[in-house]
Design a protein that fits this description.
The chain is an all-alpha fold. The chain has two domains: about 5-60, Homeodomain-like (Arc Repressor Mutant, subunit A, Orthogonal Bundle); about 60-190, Orthogonal Bundle (Tetracycline Repressor, domain 2). Helix content is about 75%, strand content about 0%. Helix 1 packs across helix 4 (about 50-60) and helix 9 crosses helix 10. The chain is elongated. The model has no long low-confidence stretch (mean pLDDT about 85).
Amino acid sequence: MCTINTEDKILNASIVLFSQKGYSSVTTKEIAKEAGVSEMTLFRHFENKHNLFEKAFDKFVFSPKFIALFEGLEWDLERDLNIICSSYLDTLYKNQNIILMHFKNEELNPEFDAALFRFPNEFQKLLGCYFEEMRNRGAVRENPETLATSFLATNFGLFITSLVMNKLTFETDIQACIASCVKIFAKGITC
């Protein structure tokens, strides 16, 4: 039987509490209690709450798989966008607790925001490079950065709608919705 190590217990507890109460409202004492460890143990592993948040964020959100995802695309716009969209939404759903945590965080903290927005910013850069290459190949005509922003905004909107409504408001399967959105998007930007 596999046991969870101390660091993972602390990381898991922190994400649960951060998503329930928001980053600012959670204390290291509460996290330690939820993880079943002493506060000293928490500090031994992470030094402070901000470091703990960054490690939790890296564990649950940041993933080098996206670089590999973009390197493995076929340069077929609609097929590639379906893969990209599905991977992006899958990551959002898997990390909805972290996203909810941000919505519950009442105070603005530049360090906190920088860590939280690292994933979407990196993803947008990868997507912008993809659209740049597709423009160089004559497949799309619009500004790559604008395309990346529009595509991510559409997908984030789909995620938020399904998260807030607890289902898609137009009662359709998420994969069917992804395919439809991608088809419309790809048709609108092709040369």
